[in-house]
Amino acid sequence: MLIWGGLFILCDSAPSRLGVPSDITQRHKGARMQREVPAISTPVKATDSDHRSHQNQEKPKENGFWDRVSHARRHCEYRPNQVLSMRLDLIQFATNTAMMLSMMLIPLFAEKELGANHTEIGVIVALYGLCLFVSSYLFSKASDAWNIKRLLIAGIALSAVAYLLQVFSCDPISLGLARGFLGICIGIYPAALIMHVHGMNRSIGKFISFGSLGWAAGFIGAGIIGVTGGYDLIFAASSVLMLLSAITALTLPEVKIRRMKVRYLSLDTVRVNWAIYLAFMLRHTGATAVWVIFPLYLVSIGADELSIGIIYAINPLLQFFMMRRLDGRDMVALVRCGYLISVIAFLSFIPSPVFYYTIPGMILIAIAWSFLYVGSTELLLRTNQDKAAAAGMITSVVSLSLVAGSLLGGVLSHNFGFTAVFLVGAGLSLIGFLISVRYVEN
Fold first, then answer.
1. In a domain, 244, yes or no
2. Contact 123, 176 (CB under 8 A)
3. How many domains is the chain partitioned into structurally?
4. The domain containing residue 272 runs over which residues?
5. Which residue from 123, 269, 320, 435 has the least number of CB within 10 angstroms?
6. Which whole-number Å values give the CA distances from 106 to 36, 354, 433, in the listed order?
7. pLDDT digits (tens, 9 = 90+) for 266-303
8. What is the C-alpha to C-alpha distance for residues 14 and 322, in angstroms, rounded to an integer?
9. What is the value of pTM for the model shown?
10. Residue 354 is part of a domain; what is its CATH number?
């Protein structure tokens, strides 16, 4: 149902999105207008010969509704690039849905089912982030040299196996190992996927927006399944979605991109773009510290699993609509605004006596992340020759932030409470803003 929902959104535009040429649409529109508006002419007296010739003529057949439909279908030509874009959007949607299905309730699963404390939960999430960092760093560089279609298929297929392995977790250690293996697998394909999009000259913002839509579907799905079906069903559903994504990736054509000789241990890309990466990492470290304890915080102020899923879904749903409208903007200004809005958003979580008081903060987070993620990715693609490595390194920065933020959030909440985590998140976002003002330029 989630995948078909994504397809429905892909296909809800005008007939030209489906490949029906606009001149055909105009001809049908003109034909309907001619049938509806009678012609005005000067009366002419008919002669006997006119009557006889008119009787010998066969009456024309009226074009009914189904005749017009069949005529349109005969002239309908699907645009290859449009179909390929739909497949890429579907992969982006399904893989992100699978990711958030498993990720959102991991803290609750570790605490309720496996008996983990807050510090152990932080270690579990940090291990996932560390493995994701190493994997995404290496395979982002590999995407500039290797066959990106093979990388994409391999990464998605291995992730399907890794999601299913979480079903067999019986203690915090086994869950940590399963999440670590999943981090390695997930790090393989993001750079290869975004290079498919870049190679087809597709809008980066619109493509990323389907990831946010997948997050929303994953959050809501996790909330519903968590209440009715249990955690094992969540992990199995994630595995099935990844398997469907791998099958879809098999139908993609080879995309020609510029191949480069890659030095895997070189830090040249990081050195050139250090300001973008550092500011982004600091802000996301604070954000991860918040998100690793946020489900526990919501439960403490009266939320259940379904309420948590709905609140989490607000953020990516708004991102979906925001990201699609950021093409052609001043990306440096967007990035700076994103950091400032993040400061306000994290501070807004502090006085929350009831769980639904966090909704305004989630709206601000959606705006901030849309500005930051699209703006930073566009800047890296525009200013670097090794585009796969530069843009894919965003995933590495996110995963490194996941390591530091998870440990930070677990330790802070365990020793000082939830408020300390929100204050640190706001402070790190402010430092990211100052770095962007001083060093990030067009």
1. yes
2. yes
3. 1
4. 80-253+268-439
5. 435
6. 62, 23, 31
7. 677 888 888 999 999 999 999 999 988 888 888 888 88
8. 21
9. 0.66
10. 1.20.1250.20
